[in-house]
Amino acid sequence: MGYRRTTAALCALFLLGVLASTQPAAQTDGPRERTLVVAYPPQQFSLDPLHTFSTTEAQLFTAVYEGLVAYDPITLNPVAGQAERWEISRDRRIYTFYLRPDARFSNGDQLRAEDFRQSWLRILDPGAAAEYSFLFDVIEGVAEYRSGELSDPNQVGIRTLGDKVLEVELAEPADHFLKVLAHHSFSAIHSGYIGALNWDRAGQMIGNGPFRVTSWTDRELRLERNEYYWGRSQVELDRVVVRFYEDPQEITRRFLAGEIHWANNWANSAELRPYLIANPLFATTYFYFRSDREPFDDERVRSGLALLLPWHQIRSPETAYFPSDTLVPDIADYPEVVGIREQDIRRGLQLLSKAGYGGGRGLPPINIKVAAGGVQVRRVAEIMQEAWEGQLGVEVAVQEFPYRDLIEEVRAGDFILAHQTWVGDFADPLTFLQMWTRSSNLNDAGYFNRQYDRMVTRALRTGGSERLPALASAEAMLLEEAVILPISHMVAFNLVSRGRLDGWYPNALDIHPFRFIRFKRLEGPRGVAGAPPPAPAG
């Protein structure tokens, strides 16, 4: 998942150490409708699985869609979703999923195994260039189908054994398969949308999740409980209203007035401290080189430039929350990997000289492109600019773009160095490493190294104790060749009305399935029935 917005206000609160643990008293006056109101900054997003990659989209998908498996709200481990159960063959290559008899779309149509098959093949179409199609490569025949080497979809390991039975054959056993299956790219769309374009902004969009879209404007997305959802009796919210606010001050005012229950953007206020939740995030901020353009396709040039940088400044507390020289955040049993930690001007100049750019002579101008609004990230880019201009006399420009515009700049290949904050799609190192393979549609660096691809493929198709060391070796190569310049690991910040909500739990991916969120029931004096706390009807 892509870039996460972080406000200066919440950063200041964190750095001041004001993450209070006290809980505000739940309010008890007002209407009793169970309407959850969520606030986001204005942004463009899609609910079509074909082209979705942001953290906002990942969150909203938990309302509108549900895959064969879903996320546990605390651990994010896979739990039964539209499949009520599954079987795994003895050789761990064939998974047979049994859909629930009452699995339906939000318009009442039956959800069939063929809907999953057709939806997945749509993403795998070589012409679609879907960002997350590489996640399917673990399935037999997918890599060949995506590349065009295999043209017959019937030879891909995705088969229907009846209306409610889907069989998936893996190329090799893959320990992470069920985890990745919870990702929103594995959703099933309605058969009426196969082959259609721009259908996800329709007023009565058809999904299969716990909520259905009833209206969608630039200012508001309104979701009502899906009465055809198999687990509708477990969904306690009547509706979810997602509102988009330009002004963080307005979010703060409305949150304190009880009109907003959850936000990830706000203005600084001491009154917000009891509501602020911060937790480690499986995420990394990094810069990356355009590695398929001369002379930056030469690892000596990339490494030489990286060694000229004053890393003690770049990874100082002023520019980084949890400074790191590695791409993959801490995760159990993953071997230690060491990246570039210190400035080494002598070695850096030597490498540039060996590549034919002694003293920086002949190096083309370097443009560094970053997302607008990130004060720390811009400061890092300016430190890079100062170092390279001072040491080499090369022309360096720092340019800021709104995030979606930055994505377009990067995809057009018009950059030398770009910034990204990447939140893992599932709790496994593979989510940070597979994206840099040649077949990945998220390989914006244009990086290609056959040995790296072999390492990742081996890890993709290896289980047991060999898997994580293979991934660590791949990460070490990525860092040694200075394709990726890690800056820091991240923290998730959320503003949550904890006195009023249950079912919202901090977790490493900052995904909070709407299916499990509910309002607390208040206990009154004996003989008085409890009632849910108020929520504005909007």
Q: Would you give an account of this structure?
A:
There is one protein chain. With 538 residues, the protein is of the alpha+beta class. It has helices spanning 8-15, 55-64, 113-124, 142-147, 177-181, 248-256, 299-307, 311-314, 345-354, 375-392, 403-411, 430-433, 450-460, 467-480; strands spanning 35-40, 69-71, 78-80, 83-88, 94-99, 158-160, 165-169, 211-216, 220-225, 239-244, 262-263, 276-289, 322-323, 366-371, 396-401, 417-423, 484-496, 501-502, 518-519. A hairpin with a 5-residue loop joins strand 4 and strand 5 (94-99). The chain is globular and about 70 Å long.
Mean pLDDT: 89
End-to-end separation in angstroms reads 30 Å
How many helices does DSSP assign? 14
Q: Helix proportion of residues, in percent?
A: 10-25%
Number of strands: 19
Entry keywords:
single chain, alpha+beta, eleven-stranded mixed beta sheet, four-stranded antiparallel beta sheet, 14 helices, 24% helix, disordered N terminus, disordered C terminus
Concise structural overview:
The protein is an alpha+beta fold.
What is this structure's SSE topology?
Blueprint (H helix, E strand, L loop, with lengths): L7 H8 L19 E6 L14 H10 L4 E3 L6 E3 L2 E6 L5 E6 L13 H12 L17 H6 L10 E3 L4 E5 L7 H5 L29 E6 L3 E6 L13 E6 L3 H9 L5 E2 L12 E14 L9 H9 L3 H4 L7 E2 L21 H10 L11 E6 L3 H18 L3 E6 L1 H9 L5 E7 L6 H4 L16 H11 L6 H14 L3 E13 L4 E2 L15 E2 L19
Parallel strand pairs: 1-10, 1-11, 14-15, 14-16
Antiparallel strand pairs: 2-3, 4-5, 5-7, 6-7, 8-9, 9-10, 11-17, 12-16, 12-17, 13-17, 18-19
